Amino acid sequence: MKAVVLHGTCEAEELAVREVSVPQVRPGWVLVRVRAFGINRSEVLVRSIEAGMEHIKLPRIIGIECVGEIADPSDSAFARGQRVVALMGGMGRSFDGSYAEYALLPTRQVFRADVEMDWASLGAIPETFFTAWGSLNDGLQLAPPDSVLVRGGTSALGIAAVQLAKSFGCTVMATTRSKEKLGFLKAIGADHQLLDDGTLSDQVREHCPSGVDKVLELVGPATLRESLLLTAQRGVVCVTGILGGQHTLDGFDPIKDIPNSVCLTSFFSNYPTQAIMDNIFDHIRRNGITPHIAKVFRLEDISRAHQLMESNRADGKIVVLT
Ligand SMILES: NC(=O)c1ccc[n+]([C@@H]2O[C@H](COP(=O)([O-])OP(=O)(O)OC[C@H]3O[C@@H](n4cnc5c(N)ncnc54)[C@H](OP(=O)(O)O)[C@@H]3O)[C@@H](O)[C@H]2O)c1
Questions:
Q1: CATH classification of 2-125+291-321, choosing from 3.40.50.620, 3.90.180.10, 3.40.1160.10, 3.40.710.10?
Q2: Which residues line the pocket of ligand 1, CB cutoff 6 A?
Q3: What are the pLDDT digits (tens) for 232-247?
């Protein structure tokens, strides 16, 4: 089969497709014929940094999510040909992932996807919508009439969060660092499009004088202190992204940095379940939500797909068909 195999860290330009053997099934694992997969920042991280660290055993096929069909159900209850999605749980790090024509995956990370959707559209959903869904529902406990600020609104995750938050009936503000992308934020449904240019506090208070009820923080620790100050009393900030490139916050003083009555939480997409995936697919269908795809590549063009993500010019989910 064709696969993208890492033998160490490399640049996006060095990614290439190789011929490797189709993996053999074993108990507790199913073989999936991968039809499409989304590109994620975490794969950029594995390629550029983590592949040089001890926790990644090389060679490794990367990729933390995919959609496809069961090619061999092994000892699972799946039928051959069942449409499935799979994500996380060590995929593409602890065991080989999705950048391939076939993936051998732990049955617990594979979920039925009985939805009428082309492969590219389905491929844009698992990681991005699961993370947006969990951040909004579990992290922020978002419900109307909440106002919510999506910080990093033009990211694939930010776009999905804007779409979902609007479908919940909330008032949605979303940020970009680029004036040119304000129109894009409007087009995807954000009620207020804000420029993250150092004046965000004034812009937020123009629409929500007492602060915004909920903040989905996708830029991460780099902007967290400010996001906490933009939040209304009894509001919630959920840190889900690290687009700012800063993973930790040195000198964070919880008593002084978290305003009284504001809650700070986070979301990690490592624990998907069939019930949640069913809820997401049902919600998407009932609300007519179409995943926003930036560009669809073939597996052979994997290098260009990673380059596009690193350029920050994607404006949507990058999907690869296998
Ligand atoms: N917690 C979890 O389990 C989980 C799961 C999935 C993803 N994530 C994280 O969620 C974030 C979004 O992922 P994604 O794949 O959706 O990203 P993406 O689509 O690649 O995001 C691209 C956008 O991010 C913005 N951006 C880039 N660098 C930035 C910086 N230094 N400061 C502020 N904004 C910046 C740019 O928007 P503008 O140019 O318009 O500002 C760019 O268009 C990532 O940090 C990812 O690691 C977390």
A1: 3.90.180.10
A2: 40-42, 127, 131, 152, 154-157, 176-178, 181, 218-219, 240-245, 267-269, 309, 312, 314
A3: 999 999 999 999 999 9
